[in-house]
Amino acid sequence: MVFILNGKQESIEKPLSLDALIAAKGLCPEKIVVEHNFSIISKEDWPKIMLKDQDMIEVISFVGGG
Amino acid sequence: MVFILNGKQESIEKPLSLDALIAAKGLCPEKIVVEHNFSIISKEDWPKIMLKDQDMIEVISFVGGG
Amino acid sequence: MVFILNGKQESIEKPLSLDALIAAKGLCPEKIVVEHNFSIISKEDWPKIMLKDQDMIEVISFVGGG
Amino acid sequence: MVFILNGKQESIEKPLSLDALIAAKGLCPEKIVVEHNFSIISKEDWPKIMLKDQDMIEVISFVGGG
Amino acid sequence: MNMEDLLALGGRSIKSRLLIGTGKFSSYPLMKKALEVAQPDIVTVALRRVDASSKTDNILEYIPKSCILMANTSGARNADEAVRIARLAKAAGTGPWIKIEVVQDQKYLLPDNLETLKAVETLAKEGFIVLPYMSPDLSMARRMADAGAAAVMPLGSPIGSNRGVKTRELVEILVREIKVPVIVDAGLGSPSDACECMEMGCAAVLVNTAIAIARDPVAMAKAFKDAVSAGRAAYLAGLAASGNKASASSPLTGFLRNEIL
Amino acid sequence: MNMEDLLALGGRSIKSRLLIGTGKFSSYPLMKKALEVAQPDIVTVALRRVDASSKTDNILEYIPKSCILMANTSGARNADEAVRIARLAKAAGTGPWIKIEVVQDQKYLLPDNLETLKAVETLAKEGFIVLPYMSPDLSMARRMADAGAAAVMPLGSPIGSNRGVKTRELVEILVREIKVPVIVDAGLGSPSDACECMEMGCAAVLVNTAIAIARDPVAMAKAFKDAVSAGRAAYLAGLAASGNKASASSPLTGFLRNEIL
Amino acid sequence: MNMEDLLALGGRSIKSRLLIGTGKFSSYPLMKKALEVAQPDIVTVALRRVDASSKTDNILEYIPKSCILMANTSGARNADEAVRIARLAKAAGTGPWIKIEVVQDQKYLLPDNLETLKAVETLAKEGFIVLPYMSPDLSMARRMADAGAAAVMPLGSPIGSNRGVKTRELVEILVREIKVPVIVDAGLGSPSDACECMEMGCAAVLVNTAIAIARDPVAMAKAFKDAVSAGRAAYLAGLAASGNKASASSPLTGFLRNEIL
Amino acid sequence: MNMEDLLALGGRSIKSRLLIGTGKFSSYPLMKKALEVAQPDIVTVALRRVDASSKTDNILEYIPKSCILMANTSGARNADEAVRIARLAKAAGTGPWIKIEVVQDQKYLLPDNLETLKAVETLAKEGFIVLPYMSPDLSMARRMADAGAAAVMPLGSPIGSNRGVKTRELVEILVREIKVPVIVDAGLGSPSDACECMEMGCAAVLVNTAIAIARDPVAMAKAFKDAVSAGRAAYLAGLAASGNKASASSPLTGFLRNEIL
Q1: How far is E252 from chain D (nearest CA, A)?
Q2: Is the Cβ pair G138, E105 closer than 8 Å?
Q3: Whole-prediction pTM value?
Q4: What is the sign, positive or negative, of the torsion defined by CA atoms of E137, E139, E145, E147?
Q5: Fewest C-beta in 10 Å: which of A61, B25, G83, H214?
Q6: What's the total number of domains in chain B?
Q7: Which residues of E are catalytic?
């Protein structure tokens, strides 16, 4: 099963929840916001979301900007 | 019966056609355009238009402008 | 005998020294400088200068300027 | 015997007049002005001037300028 | 100036890059003289209610027949009013050329880009040759061009202010980025302002007040005409770059030092 | 432009208010074409040591006979050198017209007003028609005029910089206060710069680099010629004042409101 | 500067009229130092996809906790994208403050006023405190204010160009006519540019590039801070009018003539 | 601002780069307050005949004792008069500091560079610390520096005109070429003008009218003080260059396209 993370296709064998994905990627929950198929998912809901085939996930954080 | 000519109310007793009105006002047909109740009336149709109560007539011509 | 003080002609009967003139005019020695016939006279020399006919005296002080 | 022409030292054996020098250099009299030891020499006087040792000659002409 | 340098506009080949407005002249005969010396291809006029009582002349009789008449929609406060005026103008005989002018702000007479865009869309569809007077903004100028504007006419400064090309920074960008001709309209106060616009690469300029209220409008019209062709010629001839240092235009003559080389 | 508007200068009546310098042209024939289209009355040249080895043409053959030749003293670093060059130029046949140019500063080529003044005094006494290139300073310009300068020629910006009239504030004061003609020399980079000078009331402008190094010097010469007459005409025609607010050039048409009056 | 002169914006009382952008600093610690000396109340940040591979720090840790964080929507090419980024930013914790930046043009990064207006309408309804970066156009600025923008942020010149307030003519009109604060954003290259904006009556300025890429960003941040309060103070203190003539600041001392009065 | 950034002038280390003139204040007490907030190191005064009848205060009592008093020679029309006033001022107790101001022109109050130079030569020899007010001309500024001027003070625009640095082109050249400090005197109308001068690299500015006739001279004095240090700090911090294109200060966020990389 494949999904798109920040524009890159990735594939997994066994089921994976959003928080497991974040953890696996070693991303710091405090500094990011996650969008799952165009809807923003609050941290507390990450465990409830199980990735499905073709899911599109965006993980965003702040950078310098004017 | 009353009508509005260029924003001024006027009243008449007997029926009057657009071309008769233009003539009565001494306006030169070549240099004007006439709007009757928001639709533009070409010169040849002036005789066909008989003024009705509350009609709104605009008679416009060119002036200097930038 | 006449002399010119700041462009105005004045006349006196009896001899007059510079310091007497300054005193007579009620000018405050601290804030002025005195020029006698185009040479600057220091305060201590004022008593030594006796006015002569046609002497030209300028009494100058500071004012605002850019 | 040596002389300076436009800043360059040159030497000659036998006597030479200004007009001979100009001719020898192939310069067109119409377009130049000649200065001999800081005085301007008119064309008619060129033949009269015999070069002397250490003479300084400037030959000038017009060029583009703003 | 190169005879072949014509401006393609509204399907016509325009020779004069000086468009002239007819407002504010002290008299029609004076205006006529000014137009005769300036020889514009395009002249703007406005519309107004006829005053039956006053017997004013017909301005059209004082505009050379050879000129393209372009009515403006001055007085319009929104797209609908502009469209209505445009249709009246066409019916009145100015043909398809229309300068869209939609103004809400009565103090600076600045154009309303959004209502102007709407009017461009409607009138271009109806076959008008549409020249919108606009506030110099790249995104709206693009939309007007895409909607069928024959040209865009950004302001140099407020109408009648004679302040010159105060919007140069933005107008230069329009010139580089917009695919239709850019014609600076409003605010040009002197021939050097008009010349500067042409040197920047503008396709043309529209001038009214600076000519009409000059002490001698006829001579001023001629001055603008010459300045516009000078500026256009300079643009075509390739202006030299400017620098921060000096660069001698004359040889730094050597002989004065009398140095022995 | 008014045929009677002639510039009285050095006892002559000058028709063209565009003086042209002859430096930096890529070739003499090209320069000749530029002069033929611009039709200047006064053309500047410089002096240089003849290089016997090189067989360059005589520049004078490429300058219309009708032009007044004015040699400049470029290369002079003080009054004495300027005087020496002026005398050489006269002997070489340019007649009494001389542009004094005394420069110490080799980076910006800015004129030395004090040495320039001394050269004016000497040469005016010798009967030269003296036009000093100067830094725009009222007190020195007055002295040059009193010493017999036929005109004063303040710089617009450094020679060859094409930066325009960066000294406008001071040049405008010279125009109002100096009794001899004020001719802006140096730095004018585009026809609009020259036009602006003329609108300010300058008597003329002297241009060289901007024409000589343009992509098309002949077309650029024509552009400067037209811009100068446009600017002069505008000055004579009386430019309208500029304001901070807008002022309608069209009637703010009433009929759109349909109000009952 | 008067302690009571606070800017009411988004329901807050803002003390510093210098808003600072966080892009382009060579390091976060350097940026932190600059923010510490400039003491802005409002600081802008951007959003970007996390790169799992790179372990970059969290910029928020380098911004004083006292600052209001305002995310921008840079990268958005239309209203929908801007709205989406705004919601993400809010979810990510910047709260309700959002700088709308919708850019189609990648060369000059000029804002798209129409798409920006749409984003203002949507986000203001959602309770965001919306500050739109916009092209200085009165009609669109009015619409943005009417749609609930907390302020309008016209550009001085293109982002990062450091060219200053090239749009002064139009920005001055916004200051006079728009009822919400006018904050000049983009293009300010030096403290004097920022000072000039404040003297014009702008409510504040937003600066990023000119500070971030200065040789010494910390000192430059302080310089901008001081120039902004100087300009604001001058505006409040009432600048004297400028004139064309001189007016002596010293008495023209009489005694030197030695005239007998 | 860097504590070590002191201006070496006349053998002193000057902390404030804002020199203040004392003319035109509506009252001495008001002037005193302005000087107390601006904390200038150098303050200028003028001389005048005492009017025995009027009992005006002594201005010196309203100037902080810590200030260096610098008398000006206003009213002088030539070098001799300037020298005479300088000597009177010294006798009156201002010490060796003198601002030379020689003016013939009563309309624009422009300095006479030649007479000013003569006064510099005489007074420098007599041990005065001479700061000549001058018309920005490189050759004369060099001579004044060579004659012993402690600094040169070119005008920004006519005295009291509040027009700003209209002579920027020439002043910038002085800053680069003259070995003594360049202090812009006259014409600065707003703090941003003063800030701009400092950013250009001027050593200091002298302001009088713009402060004295402001609605609130005390607040304006503070504004000028802050703007001057801001401009100086910016100069030291290295202003970034300006460009013609935009340069993004935010990443052009990629995620919005949802492209598959």
Answers
A1: 10
A2: yes
A3: 0.91
A4: negative
A5: B25
A6: 1
A7: 99
